[in-house]
TrEMBL record, chain A:
4-aspartylphosphate modified-residue sites: 53
Gene3D superfamilies: 3.40.50.2300
GO terms of biological process kind: phosphorelay signal transduction system
Coiled coil feature spans: none
Domain Response regulatory: 4-120
Lipoprotein is among the record's keywords: no
GO molecular function annotations of the record: DNA binding
Segments passing through the bilayer: none
UniProt name for this protein: Response regulator
Superkingdom assignment: Bacteria
InterPro entries documented for this protein: Bact_response_regulator (IPR050595), CheY-like_superfamily (IPR011006), Sig_transdc_resp-reg_receiver (IPR001789)
Pfam families: Response_reg (PF00072)
PANTHER family in the record: RESPONSE REGULATORY DOMAIN-CONTAINING PROTEIN, STRESS RESPONSE REGULATOR PROTEIN 1
TrEMBL record, chain B:
Pfam family, one: HisKA
Membrane topology: Multi-pass membrane protein
Native organism: Thalassococcus profundi
Molecular function as annotated in GO: phosphorelay sensor kinase activity; transmembrane transporter activity
This protein's name: histidine kinase
Subcellular location, principal: membrane
Enzyme Commission identifier(s): 2.7.13.3
UniProt-listed InterPro entries: HATPase_C_sf, HATPase_dom, His_kinase_dom, HisK_dim/P_dom, HisK_dim/P_sf, Na/Glc_symporter_sf, Na/solute_symporter, Sensor_HK_Regulatory
UniProtKB/TrEMBL annotation, chain C:
TM region(s), chain numbering: 29-47, 59-79
UniProt keywords, alphabetically: Membrane, Transmembrane, Transmembrane helix
Name of this protein: Uncharacterized protein
Keyword Transmembrane helix: yes
Organism, as annotated: Thalassococcus profundi
């Protein structure tokens, strides 16, 4: 049974790239590009792995993650966070929000794939 | 018959006796056991120098000539003494607290330490007193003459007598008047000698009186009957003279330099006044009691034409009472000598302090700080002044040659010195009195006195020529010395008294009213007039314990309780006292003053201690010193304040700079973070797709082309971002050079429209323009302006969310500028976003836009460089931007 | 804060006030005395001059009696003022 990934990202080209890479590996990829409605989408889709961008229109990735962690259903959801602001303080903020993995853009496709794979197998 | 030789021997013996008395008094005062020296009795007796030889001899003469007029000379002072609560109490208090040394000092001190006034009063005093001293010399000479045989050599002898008396008096005065230079100007020896002489005077006159009444007339009632039967039998008195001379003598009693000396300067304790208030009138009454009987008996017994001034001597002599005559002679001698001595001391103080010392100080360059040196100079100057004053009296005597009746000279002198009265009383009762007023009053009064009484007193033709006496100055009748303003027939003394006082008072009040006092003068005026509020109670009330306690209270306030108590205990222990309070010894006071000076400054400490211990109010010098100190402290503290203000200003600037740096740092961090994001985002796509292309053999050619296009787009986006960043950096640093050219606005817009919409796809933006309005010649950097237009048009293209996007470009030319509006038909920019759209990286749209959010920031920089402005227009349907280009750069295309 | 405690210090001050009051009246008397003397000694101005006027012995007696009277009153005032001050002395020391 194919694993399900939800990608929340607002750059169309990046969405296209990640979707391509994951679906080629056999993942089911859903995408969403609005921060405000992201949490609801996660609850509706119930993905196995969530890939979350930080800079989103409406609501930041950190806030979304914190909300997810407060919910029992999504408390343990594996989350990979992507950000274009690769400073250490961004990483620290992500960890404090309860992230499972953190990657700075631009990333290597294979590394990203490996990361998603490792997150999906507990 | 008493020979001249025995007379001289008696005189010398008497003088020697006085020397001894004065010497003993000085000795015991020095040893500090001279309490009896400062008894009220001695004070009262010392006042008797009012009764000079003029009184002793002249009163009888006056009674024989004019009846009861002589009484007025005593009534005036009696009233002043009985009314001590009015004036004398205040004068003595002022004299003690302000350390007044003479009348001149009092006047000068009250009117702001004016030396000019002091000199004026001194001159007035010298001029007024010199004839009086001459009068004393004359009386001594005359009394010698009574005893002497009428020999041919008599005239020469008189001169010698006067000369020897003058020299002797000068020597005595120098010895006892300038022995020590006491700050209080008190001369115990002199005062004691005067007191003894007062007793001799009174005894002598009473003895002659008793002899006349009971020895010659046979009893009191017989004497009264004899008086009624005599030429003086009925009351004969000119009312004007009775009242006028009573007032004049009262005034003179206060103003005479010698009276001021004994009343105020030599006063040890103001409570002595209380005793003197009744005792001195008693003395005066006794002095005048037997005057009329002696005069009446003298007129009876003595041959016609004999000098009534000498009845006191000649009546006993004629009855063979040589011993009584000798006593009487000694009484007259005492009267004369005591007056000369005190007058010389008083005048020499004035002359030395106000004339000699200022001149000496000026010539020596004012080295007054060398105290030992000055002390010596002051003594020498005093001694010379004494010799000068007595010498002047002798010269006056020798030149005038005796002559006029004694009483006349006395009144002339009184009238002269009474001119000081308005300035004196005005000074101590009226705060409005000013130096100018005092000077004007004194000058007017002195001038009139000089012209109408003093100069004529030498006799017609002596100094003032006869013609002037008869016809007046410059031949003006109303300026005749004895008939000013044409009022004739007045008694000369009353005439002078009336006019001089009228002008004196008038000038004093008028000038005081119109002039303005200096600060020092006002301060002194307040101190003098309100002396009883400023100075404490009489010092005799406060014992040593009270002082120590007061000092303790004060010291605690200044030093703090514990330290003050420690200091006092230490001092008490040093003095060997069991208690906590030490004696107020000079050592202790000095130590305390030093201690206090550390806290409040030397002058303040001195003033504070002085006020408590001395019972003195603070003198003006003290206050000035305090003010100086305070000013210095204030200056010092204001310097400190300025420094601390500067420090805090610097600190504030540092804080501001720091805050600015922090803000800049935060901005820089945010900017770098933004840049990083903007660069990484396209690079992410590029890297992802290039890896896909590299790995992906399974890709169809369509996908390959698609991904390659994405890579290219993102690369272009990156390039544009870098361009924008560089552009913005150049613009912000002001390094851009404008390339000014002329061109048509419509051409610029055409180019911008074409460039903005070149690569766009999707629903094509419709642009509505009015080409006619755009036909304007611009003189500006056309490329830069075009860049702004491109940005605005492409923004509309990207962000306008209408189904049929339209952009209106409207051009309006105003007087000062050219206004170009870009208005689309979308939903516009939200209110909260309008503030930030011109900031860097301020993208407000939801993502899809291709720009990095630098466009509007760059546009704003450009328009600002061109001298115009770009704003967001509110109140439009869609997004609306207004570009304003200054008119100087826009010319209508003709 | 009982009533007697408040009353106690007040009583001497009342006493003191009466005393200072009397002292002030004494001062007034001391001030008035010379004016009285001046007035009495101005009475001779009203006397007629010449042979039909007041005799010299009468004039002398009048003037000296006034004199003596003034001296006695002044003496009395000085004594009273002095005793007032002596009374005040211990208070000043408190």
């Amino acid at each position: 049974m194919p694993k399900h990934v939800l990608l929340i990202e607002d750059e169309p080209n990046i969405i296209e790239a990640i979707s391509f890479i994951l679906s080629r590996d056999g993942w089911t990829v859903n995408t969403h590009s609005n921060g405000t409605t992201a949490v609801d989408t996660v609850h509706a889709r119930r993905p196995d792995v969530l890939i979350l961008d930080v800079m989103l229109p409406g609501k930041s990735g950190y806030d979304i993650l914190r909300e997810l962690r407060e919910h029992p259903e999504t408390e343990g959801l594996p989350v990979l966070m992507l950000t274009a602001r690769g400073q250490t303080k961004d990483r620290e903020m992500a960890e404090r929000a309860g992230v499972n993995a953190f990657m700075a853009k631009p990333f290597s496709n294979s590394e990203m794939l490996e990361m998603v794979r490792s997150l999906s197998t507990p | 018959m008493t020979t001249l030789n025995t007379l001289v021997a008696v005189c010398l013996g008497y003088v020697l006796f006085l020397f001894v008395v004065a010497f003993m008094a000085e000795r015991s005062a020095l040893r500090g056991n001279g309490r009896w020296l400062r008894s009220p009795l001695v004070y009262t007796l010392s006042l008797s120098i009012y009764c000079t030889a003029w009184t002793f001899y002249g009163a009888v003469g006056s009674a024989a000539r004019t009846g009861f007029e002589y009484l007025t000379i005593y009534l005036g002072p009696s009233l002043v003494m009985i009314g001590w609560w009015w004036v004398l109490r205040k004068l003595v208090r002022i004299g003690r607290t302000q350390r007044i040394t003479s009348v001149a000092d009092l006047i000068s001190s009250r009117y702001g330490k004016s030396n000019l006034l002091a000199i004026g009063v001194t001159i007035l005093a010298v001029v007024g007193t010199t004839p009086y001293i001459a009068l004393q010399l004359q009386s001594v000479t005359l009394s010698f003459q009574v005893f002497g045989t009428p020999a041919p050599a008599a005239d020469a002898l008189h001169d010698y007598t006067a000369l020897w008396v003058a020299v002797g008096l000068a020597v005595f005065t120098v010895i006892f008047g300038t022995r020590n230079l006491d700050a209080n100007e008190r001369h115990h020896g002199v005062v004691m000698a005067i007191a003894v002489e007062a007793v001799v005077k009174l005894t002598a006159l009473l003895a002659v009186g008793v002899f006349v009444v009971w020895g010659l007339s046979g009893g009191l009632s017989e004497t009264l009957a004899r008086i009624d039967a005599s030429p003086l039998g009925h009351w004969q008195m000119e009312g004007g003279r009775w009242a006028g001379i009573t007032l004049l003598s009262a005034a003179a009693f206060l103003c005479l330099p010698r009276m001021f000396q004994v009343l105020v300067v030599e006063s040890d304790d103001e409570t002595h006044l209380r005793t003197a208030s009744w005792a001195f009138p008693l003395y005066l009454m006794l002095m005048s009691l037997f005057v009329v009987p002696i005069a009446v008996v003298g007129l009876d017994l003595m041959p016609a034409g004999s000098n009534p001034d000498l009845f006191v001597l000649t009546v006993p002599l004629s009855q063979g009472q040589e011993g009584l005559a000798l006593l009487s002679f000694l009484g007259g001698f005492s009267s004369a000598t005591s007056m000369v001595i005190v007058a010389a001391i008083a005048l020499s103080t004035m002359v030395s302090n106000h004339i000699v010392m200022p001149i000496w100080l000026r010539f020596t360059g004012g080295g007054a700080s060398v105290s030992g040196d000055v002390r010596h100079v002051v003594l020498v100057s005093r001694r010379l002044s004494i010799a000068g004053v007595v010498g002047l009296g002798y010269v006056y005597y020798a030149v005038s040659g005796g002559g006029t009746a004694l009483a006349t000279i006395g009144l002339v002198s009184f009238a002269g010195l009474a001119q000081v009265l308005p300035a004196m009383l005005g000074g101590i009762f009226w705060r409005g009195a000013t130096r100018v007023g005092a000077f004007a009053g004194l000058t007017a009064g002195f001038g009139i006195w000089l012209y109408t009484l003093f100069l004529p007193s030498f006799g017609s033709g002596m100094i003032l020529p006869d013609a002037l006496m008869q016809n007046g100055l410059f031949g003006l009748g109303w300026l005749r010395p004895y008939a000013l303003f044409g009022i004739e027939g007045m008694d000369p003394v009353l005439h002078t008294l009336f006019w001089s006082m009228a002008f004196n008072l008038g000038a004093f009040f008028l000038a005081s009213l119109v002039s303005f006092p200096s600060p020092l003068e006002r301060l002194q005026g307040a101190q003098f007039v309100n002396i009883f509020q400023h100075s404490g109670a009489a010092s005799s009330w406060s014992g040593g314990v009270v002082q120590s306690e007061d000092l303790m209270i004060m010291a605690q306030r200044i030093l703090g309780a514990r330290e003050a108590q420690a200091l006092f205990a230490r001092e008490a222990e040093r003095q060997g006292h069991p208690g906590a309070l030490p004696e107020t010894s000079p050592d202790f006071l000095e130590a305390l003053e030093r201690e206090l000076a550390g806290s409040v400054g030397a002058a303040t400490a001195h003033a504070m201690v002085g006020q408590i211990v001395g019972g003195m109010s603070v003198s003006v010098e003290d206050l000035m010193a305090v003010a100086d100190e305070t000013a210095q402290m204030m200056e010092y503290s204001s310097r400190l304040e300025a420094q601390s203000a500067e420090l805090s200003r610097t600190a504030r600037q540092l804080r501001e700079a720091n805050a600015k740096l922090t803000r800049l740092s935060v901005q820089k961090d945010a900017f770098l973070s933004q840049i990083s994001h903007e660069l990484r985002t396209p690079m992410t796509s590029i890297r992802a797709f290039s890896e896909i292309l590299r790995d992906g053999s399974a890709l169809g050619p369509e996908d390959q082309a698609k991904y390659a296009t994405i890579i290219q787009d993102e690369a272009i986006r990156l390039t544009r971002l870098l361009d924008d960043l560089l552009d913005l950096s150049v613009l912000e640093n002001g390094q851009v050079s404008l390339n000014l050219r002329q061109g048509l606005l419509c051409d610029v817009l055409d180019r911008a429209e074409a460039a903005a919409l070149a690569y766009t796809d999707g629903p094509r933006l419709q642009i509505n323009r009015d080409r006619k309005a755009e036909t304007l010649v611009l003189n500006t950097d056309l490329d830069r302006l075009s860049q702004v237009f491109i940005n605005l048009i492409s923004n509309a293209d990207k962000y306008c969310d209408a189904a049929q996007p339209e952009l209106d470009i409207r051009v309006v030319q105003t007087a000062e500028s050219l206004v170009i509006d870009f208005i689309d038909n979308g939903s516009g920019v939200s209110v909260e976003a309008r503030d930030v759209i011109f900031e860097k990286f301020a993208r407000v749209s939801d993502g899809q836009a291709g720009g990095a959010g630098l466009g509007l920031a760059i546009s704003r920089q450009i328009v600002t460089r061109l001298g115009g402005a770009i704003t967001y227009l509110t109140g439009q349907k869609g997004a609306a931007f207004r570009v304003i280009v200054p008119q100087g750069m826009a010319l209508a295309a003709q | 804060m009982t009533a007697p405690a408040e009353d106690r210090p007040r009583r001497p001050s009342l006493f003191l006030e009466r005393r200072t009051y009397r002292r002030r009246r004494l001062m007034d008397a001391a001030r008035l005395l010379p004016l009285l003397g001046l007035l009495l000694w101005c009475i001779p101005l009203l006397w007629p001059s010449g042979p039909e006027g007041v005799t010299s012995s009468g004039a002398l007696t009048y003037i000296f009696c006034v004199w003596l009277g003034l001296i006695l009153v002044a003496f009395g005032l000085a004594l009273r003022l002095r005793s007032e001050e002596v009374d005040k002395l211990p208070e000043a020391r408190k």
